[in-house]
Amino acid sequence: MKKANKTAIKEFEIQPQMDTIFFVHSGGIMLRDCTVTLKSMPKKLKSKIPAIVALPNSFVNLTNTEVIGHERNHNAGLILLNADAMIS
Q: 64 phi and psi, to 5 degrees?
C-alpha cells in the first residue's frame, strides 16, 4: 500500500466550505450501487475538487460504487484523513 502524498493533499485545502460532492465531517456515509461523478464539471477549473472527503473519526462505506473524475481537471476520488473506509 502506498503512503499518502502530503504535498498533494495540501493542494486541496480541506475545509467544510470546499467544493466537493460529499464532505463527511462526522458520522459516516454509506453508498451502494452508485456512480459519483465529476464529469459534468466545467473544463479547466482552477480549484481542485475531490469527490468525497472524510475527516478524522468518520467513516465511508462504498459497495459497488464507481467514482469517476474529470480527465481535464485536477480532482481526486477520495480523500480520507484518518477516517475509516470499507470499499467493496
A: 50, 45
pTM score: 0.80
Is the Cβ–Cβ distance between 49 and 78 less than 8 Å?
A: no
71: nearest Cα among 46, 49, 47, 38: 38
Q: Residue 13: name the closest of 62, 58, 47, 55 by CA.
A: 47
Confidence band of 20 (pLDDT split at 50, 70, 90): confident
DSSP letters spanning 43-73: TT-SS-EEEEEE-TT-EEEEES-EEE--TTS
CA gap 45, 74 in Å, rounded: 8
What pLDDT shows up at residue 71?
Answer: 66
Contact 23, 53 (CB under 8 A): yes
